[in-house]
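Input (structure):
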């Protein structure tokens, strides 16, 4: 069966960052709404497949202010998870594929045949372009505590409070809120590294996120205060991976982890820029 159309939208100027590119939090917000519509159309729910374990987004083409957004969704049984809900985002005017999201579920193995039958009208083959490339598909399963991370060198990079407007229909903080915290944390983290704002301005560079994964470990609700600890996890020639831990401030409970793959972007030619070897060494030394 073909993918089901689940969202028609528009990229507003206020949703774009300093590079006039749709901020990653709004990609997650778009996919979250598309998923709600897909559940309505298909009858899919957590009660049937278990709670979603992870959402993994790949950013394939820049979405800018004024661009039309269209999303189509389906269920794949040949993806990286036992059951994978796949969302594809397109430019509504040109038809170009701009981003993908896969939602990972792990239902009971004995129910696989029943689920295949139940969702046969919504089954799609897993698209190769939606498979994770730079970040592992599996959900983050960490026992790292706030104090352990601080002792290891993680950077306190953001504080926020969950408000009513940040909650979804289930009265829990939504994906867009969690990713907005990671997005706001990133520039403060980079100021603790060689890639400070001044370095980017001097070299005509920006930063482009190519992939992001959100793992919820416990829920957040309105009134909860959160803080974010950030650290690098790996450095490559032209890219690096960054991890943001969202803790509930009062109890120091880990609520979510957002991983992202980032590359330096030459703003003049809009292409990845190689970092000097010494800069890469300095960044590697900061990895946890």
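Output (sequence):
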């Amino acid at each position: 069966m073909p993918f089901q159309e689940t969202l028609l939208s528009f990229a507003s100027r206020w949703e774009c960052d300093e590079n006039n590119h749709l901020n990653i939090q709004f990609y997650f917000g778009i996919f979250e709404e598309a998923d709600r519509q897909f559940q309505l159309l298909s009858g899919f729910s957590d009660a049937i497949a278990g709670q979603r374990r992870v959402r993994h987004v790949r950013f394939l083409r820049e979405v800018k202010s004024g661009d039309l957004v269209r999303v189509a969704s389906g269920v794949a049984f040949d993806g990286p998870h036992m059951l994978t809900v796949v969302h594809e985002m397109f430019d509504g005017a040109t038809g170009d594929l701009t981003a993908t999201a896969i939602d990972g579920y792990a239902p009971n193995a004995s129910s696989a045949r029943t689920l295949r039958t139940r969702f046969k009208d919504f089954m799609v083959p897993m698209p190769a372009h939606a498979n994770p490339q730079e970040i592992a598909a599996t959900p983050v399963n960490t026992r790292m505590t706030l104090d352990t991370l601080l002792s290891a060198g993680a950077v306190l990079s953001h504080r926020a409070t969950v408000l009513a407007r940040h909650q979804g229909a289930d009265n829990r903080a939504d994906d867009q809120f969690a990713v907005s915290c990671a997005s706001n944390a990133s520039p403060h983290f980079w100021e603790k590294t060689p890639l400070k704002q001044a370095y980017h301005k001097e070299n005509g560079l920006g930063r482009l996120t190519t992939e992001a994964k959100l793992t919820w470990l416990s829920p957040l609700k309105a009134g909860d205060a959160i803080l974010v600890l950030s650290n690098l996890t790996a450095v490559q020639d032209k890219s690096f991976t960054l991890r943001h831990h969202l803790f509930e401030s009062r109890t120091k409970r880990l609520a979510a982890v957002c991983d992202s793959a980032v590359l330096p972007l030459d703003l003049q030619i809009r292409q990845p820029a190689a970092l000097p070897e010494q800069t890469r060494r300095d960044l590697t030394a900061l990895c946890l």
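Notes: The chain has a mean pLDDT of 93. The first strand starts at residue 4 and ends at 10.
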